[in-house]
Amino acid sequence: MALFRTVLNATDKPRDRSNFDSSIEEDRMADAKKSWHNRLDDFSPFLDNETYRDDTTAFVSNRNGLPVMTYQFEIEEFDEDSMNLTIEENKLVLEVDRTFRKKIIRKVDIPEQVNSKQMFRQVDGKIIRVEMPLHLPPRNAPCPPGSIPILTSPDGRRVISLQTKLSSDLCEENLKVFIDENDKSIVRVRGNYQEMVGERSTHTFKKSISKDFKLQNDLKISSISHSVENDLLKVEITLEDNAESFRAGTPLTIL
Predict the structure, then answer these.
(1) At the top level of its lineage, which domain of life is listed (predicted)?
(2) Which pLDDT does position 9 carry in this prediction?
């Protein structure tokens, strides 16, 4: 609702021109008009106009040869039907009332990963911005060169996959991959085989393979599995279900 009131006290009356001829009266009217303009400042104590301080609110004009007091107000978007002019104790009172109401509704879908209980809003001019935390599912981060990443398998397990080259003379039956009994963070690879040397393979030598892989101290092994394909040993290490251990980097060291 908007309401403003402007009042002005004006008591001067037009002169009686019955006793003057027209030429004298015209001079007097010109002088009177000038005098009215010069005296406008005297009306300032009677102006009740806190909203509008425009010099054109009250001024003297000429209608049919007579000076008239003119009042002018900015009514902006008010309707003429809402205006009311009254005289109260020799004061002009203009009252304009307006009731304005507007309602907007906007609806958008919220993903299930959004935490709607932690809502932050900010109004900037005519724009309202609403922010809520979004919890995205974990994904495998890129692994820097030279490091072995911790991956997530399709069934949700956290695994480390590694591989190492084997001699073509080593049979899978003679190979063992196991977890150290005293240190659950160490994977050991052991195997024995005979290597034949010479064009006709007339000489054989007994050889063995021994490799150890140690994980970081905060990583614990749940199980391991291995396979041999084309002289390549592939080992898959499943980690214990510990969320604090699920990070990429260099999780193991070859001993």
Answers:
(1) Eukaryota
(2) 47
**CA dist., res. 217 & res. 252, Å (int):** 9
Amino acid, single-letter form, for residue 191: G
Q: In this structure, are residues 60 and 70 in contact, taking their beta carbons and an 8 Å threshold?
A: yes
Alpha carbon 238 to chain centroid, angstroms = 40
Give the domains, in start order, of the chain with CATH numbers: 22-96 (no CATH), 151-254 (2.60.40.790)
13-70 residue pLDDT tens: 455 545 545 667 677 777 766 666 565 555 544 444 444 444 456 666 666 767 777 7
In the chain, alpha helices (H): 22-38
**CB 233, CB 225: distance < 8 Å:** no
Q: What angle do CA 202, 203, 205 make, to 5 degrees?
A: 150
Helices (H) and strands (E) in the chain, counts: 1, 14
Residue whose C-alpha is closest to residue 228's, from 195, 196, 185, 191: 191
Contacts 24+ apart (CB under 8 A), 134-143: 137/113, 138/246, 140/248, 141/248, 142/248, 143/248, 143/249
**Going by C-beta distance under 8 Å and a sequence separation of 6 or more, which residues neighbour residue 154?**
none
Query: Mean pLDDT throughout 194-219?
Result: 71
Q: Take residue 128 and report the two structure tokens written for it.
A: 């309202």
Q: Say which amino acid occupies 149.
A: P
- Token pair 């160490």 is found at 186
